[in-house]
């Protein structure tokens, strides 16, 4: 490293080296060949996103900062910013609780505030860096078609990263001081998980209740909303104006964001060590949760495995929040179903793929937990039952959860439209079985608390699971309208699953 | 009609397992029923790989394993019914209480509740876990977690207990308790095979000791027999000079030095 040891710059180099290697490991799974493939895939993705961006925003490059435009940009900026806050809270919580080098840093004679100041700044920078691959294609297209004024949007991304980190750190520390170390971990992670989803869902529900549609755009562009919003000179439009090339607005947004970040670093960094030590005590302190003793129940190995999976999931609120987060996205369709119960053939048509997609995604997450996230693999493997038996019991545990969650919605749908309910049921079963099978073929050994990083073990499985769910959702949507037309998307979805099986690792298993 | 119990709880012949290089290389090993057998060896000698193959957690490339006369490779489920496996990292679920953990393990081994519940209570009492029986394991120390794992291993009264470094990281009190439980099991007719780096434990507890290096058994016997082998084969070794006063550590190091010098 170049900087003198113990300086803030030296710590910054150390942090960047770790962050870079972490990113490499995430992209490559530790294999050089995979890294090359990942870089190529990212390149293709970025090119593809430019095409998507051209299609979506290419026509708006000459837009003027009138109210509808400012509202649309502000809505998009706000959504992205909430997602950045969510990610920053996740990173901050990890910095409190999960960094393996905290003991080393706190035991060293170097002032801990330096490393924590650097660490907070690194979070801010990484937030901006993570947003860039998604934002850059849109900004590039707007620059190419509308001129350099759109370059200010890059400045806005940096400002958003700084402000999101400042808020996330401030919120986490406030939680820490008010509800204590143990609850902060859970609350911050749950808030981080739902914060972005809440905004989208809130807009969708408002759109459904107001206009009977699930589209967020119709709400944002409604005359009623526009009439109630502040006039064009208001400061709330500064971020949108900054993105559109207003230099003064950009400088203002940057100044406020950096001031927020600097203030948070100045206030929090000197105390961060103290918070980290308190957080470390969470794991060391004993957790007494006395439950009423119940008699042992007569059970089979398969039932014991299923019950164990359900108990572990039920008792881990963080995992519940992570796995069931997809269920939040079912709220708007449920509201739509409720609102258009009498006359909603079009609404039912929309519900079918949403439910099938959600079932596939949820089944994939649960299957990973049950199959790869087994905390005691040796115990289960050393039990006098075959590995096939174990897998079958775990798959049953997953499918029962899917059935319990989706049965009420399908039952209501069945009263309104039996045909749509039938198609949805078949779609849910196929999507759930496909996602579970993919997790089974790509199973690896991991800790349950690595759930958020499960994609690292196999990018292929992650993409396959998503494409399979999308494929079966599309098939169900088409089938609900015309059964014969559904053959083509069904064939495609089947090919995705079959191709994934073909590429799955043939590991030696006992 | 009465059948005689097989004389060996564990019979291993020509066991081979290769990863990048041979981890276990033609191992032959017999452990008598009712015996406490300690398997010693340096890091990377193949001890854990051997035990994992016996427990059915790893498939050998060649060789045979018989547990109480049952071919463990042909009928692993029947063999697993008779065995219990404990590693140095306790395999328990943080979100379950010790009692629930024992209920789960009893379910895996198909024990009837009427049999499993009193046995679970007995084990919890025996291992001083009863006051914590209704607490989730997530706040437990390593020693307590290891005791929970041990209770889980014993609930189905296995004929053969396989332990891989079970005392690593335990405090003196917990280590003594675990050793006491294992000794009791052997007195009750059970068989224990255990790896350990704590030579004093092997010296005090084991009926016979096997020394493994480069995936092969290089010496085996009681402590006196090992001293004799070390002294016979290596006249200049400290163990030989010290005669019967040589500790297991001296003997162990002398035995390990032989293949290297011979090579």
Write up what this structure looks like.
The complex is a heterodimer of chains A (510) and B (263). Chain A has 510 residues and is mainly α. In chain A, 78% of the residues lie in helices and 0% in strands. Chain B is an alpha/beta fold. In chain B, the strands form two sheets. A six-stranded mixed beta sheet of chain B has the order 6-7-8-3-9-10, sandwiched between helices. In chain B, strands 2-1-4-5 form a four-stranded antiparallel beta sheet. Chains A and B meet through helix 11 and helix 16 of A and helix 2, strand 6, helix 3 and helix 4 of B.
Topology:
The complex is a heterodimer of chains A (510) and B (263).
Chain A: H1 8-28, H2 32-57, H3 67-97, H4 102-107, H5 112-146, H6 152-211, H7 216-220, H8 223-228, H9 238-243, H10 247-284, H11 301-314, H12 317-323, H13 325-328, H14 331-339, H15 345-372, H16 377-382, H17 387-416, H18 418-441, H19 459-481, H20 487-503
Helix pairs in contact in A: 1-2, 1-5, 2-5, 3-5, 3-6, 5-6, 5-10, 6-10, 6-12, 6-14, 11-17, 14-15, 15-17, 15-18, 15-19, 17-18, 18-19, 19-20
Chain B: E1 8-18, E2 22-32, E3 36-40, H1 47-54, E4 62-67, E5 70-71, H2 76-81, E6 83-86, H3 98-108, H4 113-126, H5 142-154, E7 160-164, H6 172-187, E8 191-195, H7 199-205, E9 208-213, E10 216-221, H8 223-233, H9 238-242, H10 248-262
Parallel strand pairs in B: 3-8, 3-9, 6-7, 7-8
Antiparallel strand pairs in B: 1-2, 1-4, 4-5, 9-10
Helix pairs in contact in B: 3-4, 3-5, 8-10
């Amino acid at each position: 490293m170049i900087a003198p040891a113990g300086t803030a710059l030296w710590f910054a180099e150390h942090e960047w080296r770790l962050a870079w290697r972490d990113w490499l490991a995430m992209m490559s799974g530790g294999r050089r060949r995979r890294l090359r493939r990942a870089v190529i895939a990212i390149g293709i993705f970025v090119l593809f996103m430019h095409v998507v961006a051209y299609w979506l925003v290419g026509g708006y490059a000459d837009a003027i900062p009138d109210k509808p435009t400012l509202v649309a940009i502000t809505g998009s900026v706000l959504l992205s910013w909430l997602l950045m806050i969510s990610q920053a809270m996740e990173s901050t919580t990890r910095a409190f609780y999960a960094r393996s080098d905290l003991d080393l840093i706190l035991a060293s004679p170097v002032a801990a505030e330096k490393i924590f100041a650097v660490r907070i700044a690194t979070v801010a920078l990484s937030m901006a860096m993570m947003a860039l691959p998604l934002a850059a294609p849109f900004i590039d297209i707007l620059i190419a078609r509308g001129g350099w004024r759109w370059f200010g949007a890059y400045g806005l991304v940096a400002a958003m990263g700084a402000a999101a980190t400042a808020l996330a750190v401030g919120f986490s520390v406030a939680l820490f001081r008010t509800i204590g170390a143990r609850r902060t971990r859970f609350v911050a992670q749950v808030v981080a998980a739902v914060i972005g989803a809440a905004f989208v869902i809130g807009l969708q529900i408002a759109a459904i209740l107001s206009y009977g549609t699930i589209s967020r755009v119709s709400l944002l562009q409604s005359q009623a909303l526009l009439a109630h919003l502040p006039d064009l000179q208001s400061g709330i439009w500064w971020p949108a104006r900054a993105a559109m090339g207003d230099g003064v607005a950009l400088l203002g947004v940057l100044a406020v964001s950096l001031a927020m970040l600097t203030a948070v670093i100045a206030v929090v960094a000197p105390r961060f060590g103290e918070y980290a030590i308190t957080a470390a005590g969470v794991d060391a302190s004993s957790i007494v949760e006395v439950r009423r003793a119940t008699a042992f129940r007569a059970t089979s190995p398969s039932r014991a495995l299923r019950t164990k999976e359900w108990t572990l999931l039920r008792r881990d609120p963080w995992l519940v929040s992570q796995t069931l987060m997809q269920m939040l996205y079912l709220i708007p369709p449920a509201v739509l179903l409720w609102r258009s119960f009498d006359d909603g053939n079009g609404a039912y048509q929309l519900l079918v793929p949403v439910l099938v997609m959600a079932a596939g995604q949820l089944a994939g997450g649960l299957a990973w937990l049950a199959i790869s996230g087994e905390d005691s693999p040796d115990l289960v493997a050393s039990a006098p039952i075959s590995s096939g038996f174990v897998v079958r019991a775990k798959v049953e545990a997953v499918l029962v959860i899917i059935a319990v969650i989706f049965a009420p919605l399908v039952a209501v749908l069945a009263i309104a439209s039996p045909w749509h309910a039938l198609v949805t049921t078949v779609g849910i079963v196929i999507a759930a079985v496909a996602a579970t099978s993919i997790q089974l073929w790509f199973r690896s050994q991991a800790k349950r608390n690595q759930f958020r990083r499960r994609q690292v073990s196999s990018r292929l499985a992650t993409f396959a699971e998503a494409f399979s769910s999308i494929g079966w959702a599309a098939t169900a949507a088409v089938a609900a309208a015309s059964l014969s037309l559904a053959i083509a998307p069904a064939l495609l979805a089947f090919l995705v699953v079959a191709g994934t099986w073909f590429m799955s690792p043939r590991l030696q298993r006992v | 009609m009465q059948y005689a119990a097989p004389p060996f709880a564990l019979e291993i012949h020509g066991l081979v397992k290769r990863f990048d290089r041979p981890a276990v290389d033609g191992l032959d090993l017999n452990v008598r029923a009712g015996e406490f057998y300690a398997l010693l060896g340096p890091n990377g000698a193949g001890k854990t790989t051997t035990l994992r193959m016996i427990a059915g957690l790893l498939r050998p490339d060649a060789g045979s394993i018989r547990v109480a006369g049952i071919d463990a490779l042909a009928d692993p489920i029947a063999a697993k019914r008779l065995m219990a496996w404990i590693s140095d990292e306790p395999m328990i679920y943080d979100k379950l209480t010790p009692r629930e953990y024992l209920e789960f393990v009893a379910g895996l081994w198909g024990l009837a509740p009427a049999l499993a519940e009193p046995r679970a209570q007995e084990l919890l009492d025996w291992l001083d876990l009863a006051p914590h029986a209704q607490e989730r394991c997530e706040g437990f120390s390593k020693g307590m977690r290891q005791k929970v794992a041990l209770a889980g291993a014993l609930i189905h009264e296995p004929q053969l207990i396989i332990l891989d470094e079970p005392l690593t990281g335990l405090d003196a009190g917990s280590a003594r308790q675990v050793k006491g439980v294992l000794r009791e099991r052997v007195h009750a007719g059970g068989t224990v095979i255990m790896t350990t780096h704590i030579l004093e434990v092997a010296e005090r507890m084991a009926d016979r000791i096997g020394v493994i290096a480069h995936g092969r058994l290089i010496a085996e016997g009681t402590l006196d027999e090992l001293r004799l082998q070390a002294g016979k084969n290596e006249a200049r070794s400290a163990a030989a000079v010290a005669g019967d006063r040589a500790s297991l550590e001296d003997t162990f190091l002398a035995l390990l030095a032989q293949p290297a010098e011979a090579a």
